[in-house]
Automatic annotation (TrEMBL):
Protein name: Catalase
Top-level taxon of the source organism: Bacteria
Gene Ontology MF, one: heme binding
InterPro entries: Catalase_sf
Coiled-coil zones: none
Species per Swiss-Prot/TrEMBL record: Catalinimonas alkaloidigena
């Protein structure tokens, strides 16, 4: 077998069957968990807020970074959805991963997969973990089976020594957080940055991250309330970065459970202006938005097995969720 190259994908046998099985599992889980008309997302169902934002691409980027969305100094309008990661809605006081989903609007050329919102978009799905611990479709299917069916069906996955490193990673990045605007967020999975032979991961990091203490007795929705309070009076700013792959073995495309150690490079700034967003209309809008890494410019095509899983799963589940809720996809307003 020839050596792996930078940015090279290598789909394993049986992946399509694993993806089909996962879609069936997730649909059954959603149908069981929610009454008709109330279906939320399979993952990240608890939304803290959906806020207006703008992504400004830095001027004078190096040529190898000046690709796709980052090819020119420009400001794009965007939506940002903050969330908790677990599939069940739970108190913000519990240890968890957190999510920041960014939808950049009017990106110029058609996305790889059309966004129901009706304009070309570039979505960035980020969490507080730099890895997606299942790693590939087969492990994801096995973990999901245990997650959906619960005890004792999760025991074979938990007691398999081959899964212990991935389980440890999951626990490592589940934390009790104090403030969503002081956290760093990561894509976990790789994407193109230009043509063949390129791959990067994305990250958003707060420009200012003051030490914020958790409440002594945190309320179930205290993270949302802190977001409301902060944005009522001031902006929030994140630097947006890319992490180019430098070693195809140590920084694999097909295993998202491996942390990349290559340096990050700043390519822009994400600014969330002061605003009032905690309204019924905005909550409905945020719940009906559809996010997918495949709402993407071809220049930033998602790479690897987990992203191939997401393409099929997100499309199927978004349609299923909207069908169950009986609504049409959100418009820009």
């Amino acid at each position: 077998m020839p050596p792996l190259q930078l940015g090279q994908e290598s789909p394993p046998p049986g992946e399509a069957a694993d993806i089909t099985a996962m879609i069936a599992l997730m649909k059954a889980s959603l149908a069981k968990r929610y009454a008709p008309g109330e279906t939320l997302r399979q993952f990240h169902p608890k939304m803290h807020g959906c806020v207006r934002a703008e992504l400004t691409v830095d001027a004078d980027l190096p040529e190898h970074l000046r690709q796709g969305l980052f090819r020119e100094h420009k400001t794009y309008q965007a939506w940002v959805r903050f969330s908790n990661a677990p599939p069940k809605v739970q108190s913000d006081a519990k240890a968890s991963g957190r999510g920041m989903a960014i939808k950049v609007l009017e990106v110029g050329e058609a996305s790889l997969v059309d966004d129901p919102i009706g304009v070309p978009t570039q979505d960035f799905l980020l969490t507080t973990s730099p890895v997606l611990s299942p790693g590939n479709a087969r492990n994801y299917r096995q973990a999901l089976y245990g997650l959906v069916h619960g005890f004792p069906h999760n025991l074979p996955y938990v007691f398999n020594p081959g899964n212990w490193r991935r389980l440890a990673l999951t626990l490592r990045f589940m934390k009790k957080h104090a403030d969503l605007l002081t956290l760093s967020y990561f894509s976990g999975s790789p994407f193109r940055l230009g043509g063949e032979g390129t791959a990067v991961k994305f990250s958003a990091r707060p420009l200012y991250a003051p030490l914020v203490e958790r409440p002594r007795r945190p309320a179930p929705d205290f993270l949302r309330q802190r977001l409301v309070d902060h944005l009522a009076t001031q902006d929030a700013t994140f630097t947006f970065l890319v992490q180019p792959q430098t070693d195809p073995v140590r920084e694999p495309i097909e295993d998202t459970s491996r942390i990349w150690h290559a340096p990050f490079y700043r390519v822009g700034t994400l600014r969330i202006p002061s605003q009032e967003f905690d309204t019924e209309a905005r909550r409905t809008f945020g719940e009906n938005l559809s996010f997918s890494p495949w709402h993407s410019l071809p220049t930033h095509r998602p790479l690897g097995g987990i992203n191939r899983v997401r393409r099929a799963v997100y499309e199927e589940l978004a349609a299923f969720r909207m069908q169950q809720k009986g609504v049409e996809p959100s418009s820009l307003q």
